[in-house]
Amino acid sequence: MTDPTTGRLRVPGATLHYEVRGRGPLLLLIPGGTGGAASFDAVADDLAAEHTVATYDPRGLSRSPLDDPEAEQRVAEHADDAFRLLELLSPDEPARAFGASSGAIAALHLLTTRPERLVRVVAHEPPVVEVLPDAADHRALLARVRETLHARGLMPAMTEFAAGLAGEGGSRRPDPDPASHTDSAAPSGAGPALPPHAAARAERTMADLPYFLGRIVPRFMAYPPDLHRLAALSDRLVLAVGQDSPGELPHRSAAALAERLGTGLRHFPGGHTGLTTHPAAFGAHLRTALTGALTPAEAPHTP
After folding, report:
1. Structurally, how many domains does the chain consist of?
2. Apex CA 287: angle with CA 251 and CA 37, to 5°?
3. 193: buried, middle or exposed (CB in 10 Å: 19+, 13-18, 0-12)?
4. Exposure check for the chain: N or C terminus, fewer CB within 10 A?
5. pLDDT tens by residue, 108-131
6. pTM for the whole thing?
7. Which domain holds residue 203?
C-alpha cells in the first residue's frame, strides 16, 4: 500500500484530515459509518492508477475533530465539507465522487447542491429510508435506538440498530464497520493480535461509535433526498447495491430511490460492506461505474 500525502483543511466548525494518492482527474471517496479514510485503503491504490484519489475522515470522526464536540450534525454540513475538498483539490475541473452508506447520503446532497462540481456520483446503498413506503416503521426504529442508547448504553443500541438494518435480509452483526455502519477491524473478543496499523484503526472505530450512533445515524437516516433535483441530474448518478444484501434496509432504500428516479441499479460484490469483504472485485466494479453507462440488465428495482 502506498503511503498517501496527508493534509488538514479548516472548515466551519471542524478540521478535516484528508489523504491524497495518484494523478489524474479527482475522485473523492466519501466514507460511511465510522470507517474514515482508512476504509478505502484496500482499493485506493488501484483507483489511483487513473485518478487523483482523495478521501478523508468526516467531521467529528477519528482525526477530524469538531470545534464543539457536542455540535449537532447535518447532512448539508457534511456535504459542504466534501465540496470544500473539491474546491481545494480540483479547483478548475469537475470531479467524480463515490459515497458508501451514510457517505452516499452526503454524496447525494452534494450532487443536488453543487452539480457543476461533479461529472459522476456513485452512491452505494444510501439508507435514505424516507423514500420507502414503510418509512414510519424506520422512524420508529430510530426512536428505539435512541431510547436504548440513553437507557442501556452503546452495545445494546448497536444490537437494536443492526437488527433494524438487517430487515428481511437476515441477521446483521452489531460490530462497527468501516465501509458503512460497522467495522470488521474492531476487536471482538479473544483472537490473534492485530498489526499496529489495524489495531489503531479498530481503536478509532470503537471510540467513534457513540458519536456515529447518537448523532450521525438520527440525522442521516431522517434525510429526505430532493427527488426532483436528483431526477434532473440522473445522468450523472449511479445507484449501487450489494449482490448479497437484498431485503436489508440500505439495499431496499437504494432500490426505492432508483424506482422513484426511474434509473437503474449497479450490483456490486458482497453486501452492504462489500468494500471491506470483497475489495478487489468491489474496486473493479467501481472503476466501471465511474465511467460506464448503465446496461439494460440494470433496470429499476421495486423494493
Report:
1. 1
2. 70
3. exposed
4. N
5. 999 999 999 999 999 999 999 999
6. 0.89
7. 1-303
